Amino acid sequence: MKRALGKKIMQLRKQHKYTQQFLAERCGESVTNISAYERGQRMPPPQVLERLALVLDTTVIDLLDPKYVQHPSLSEFMQQALEPSQPLDLKLVLEDLLVHLSLSKDIYFDGRLVPPNVREEMATSIDHALKQGIASIEA
Known about the structure:
This protein is mainly α and 139 residues long. It has eight helices and four strands; from the N terminus they run ααααααβαββαβ. It has helices at residues 2-15, 20-27, 31-38, 46-55, 60-64, 74-81, 90-103, 116-131; strands at 88-89, 108-109, 112-113, 136-137.
């Protein structure tokens, strides 16, 4: 559990573009302790978990939930997908998402497992969007 929590803390810290020093200052901890938490060598005490969750814009429950997976936000995904000189091919993105919805055992959205009925609704909506002829947007 310490290792999974540590990875989550590190991932969220990097997502927010925080340094260990900044996180330590905001949580009233030493950089050594933050580093030990991230490496899974030490478990943060409850009051530190609360401060970490607050600074990292999450909850203690999500930090401790082994099934909670933090994925990039939609804007982060789009930023990574866009190349300055290339238009984003939304059709390919939607087709890829449709394949994942159809073939993957578990799908997560916003860190939570998507129930089968919601997956079906998402697949139907994506299929409809593809039939509407979405092609691309310019970067």
